[in-house]
Amino acid sequence: MSKASFSLEGKTAIVTGANTGLGQGMAVALAEAGADLALVGRSAPDETVGMVEAAGRKALVIEADLGSLDPVDGIVQETRDTFGGVDILVNNAGIIKRNDAIDFTTEEWDAVMNINLRTLFFLSQAVARAMRDAGKGGKIINIASMLSFQGGIRVPSYTASKSGVMGLTRILANEWAQYGINVNAIAPGYFATNNTAALQADEKRNAEILGRIPSGRWGDPSDLAGAVVFLAAPASDYVQGITLPVDGGWLAR
Ligand code: NAP
């Protein structure tokens, strides 16, 4: 297999929530593999822009609050206007709310479902329409979770949303393979980011989590580089509808 199978030279990728954490790690990995980046989110991704440019690629910043669908069409339009098209979408932006299921509020439910599932679907739809119209196919990569496979505790809307992400990944692969679009997901295990700050700070939970990870450490955002580049590159052209765990062995335990 040639190196070209893993090259993203000449491609354009949209990554949501790329100012920090896993989104930043994946955006930089895609840039290092050759892609130009549209970085979408509500906080300025200055550091990520610097990292993308240091990799020799272009970065477009699109400010958008993905808690609503209002910015969806504009994100696709601005990316096309700047780079001429869109080849890769990474649906990374997401939030978590912790509360006992018995006390969970409609606000906690809606906030998580809106960004983690509703916007993920309609942004994917808008990008898939652009890919279909351009006739060159494309790659959509959703960020799932261990809670796509497991129930978890005190995070009902997060578990519902991430279980939904795994299901959506399958149906969209089924429907959009005909356009040459691959839809797959990555399920990160326990990664050290803002999203897991509360867990890392809780001595008991931290020890329990580490005790179950065969690799013996929290994941670093750079640990997703191989998976995201693979799923964005020609090397994965015959891979459809999977949710790939990158978890240091958590699920194997
Ligand atoms: P993070 O550091 O909290 O980053 C989340 C990203 O989503 C940030 O860029 C954030 O922007 C953005 N975001 C949140 N709400 C938004 C909104 N309304 N509009 C636009 N952007 C918004 O968390 P992370 O760990 O990197 O998480 C990234 C993804 O991985 C999420 O989908 C998460 O569920 C998933 N994940 C994480 C882990 C883990 O162990 N860390 C494990 C499994 C799955 P702001 O900075 O502006 O809030």
TrEMBL record:
Keywords linked to the UniProt accession: NAD, Oxidoreductase
Gene Ontology MF term list: 2-dehydro-3-deoxy-D-gluconate 5-dehydrogenase activity; 2-deoxy-D-gluconate 3-dehydrogenase activity; NAD binding
Organism domain of life: Bacteria
Matches recorded under InterPro entries: 2-deoxy-D-gluc_3_DH, NAD(P)-bd_dom_sf, Sc_DH/Rdtase_CS, SDR_fam
Record carries keyword Protease: no
NCBIfam families noted in UniProt: kduD (TIGR01832), PRK07231.1 (NF005559)
PANTHER family registered for this protein in UniProt: 2-DEHYDRO-3-DEOXY-D-GLUCONATE 5-DEHYDROGENASE (PTHR42760:SF5), SHORT-CHAIN DEHYDROGENASES/REDUCTASES FAMILY MEMBER (PTHR42760)
Protein name in UniProt: 2-dehydro-3-deoxy-D-gluconate 5-dehydrogenase
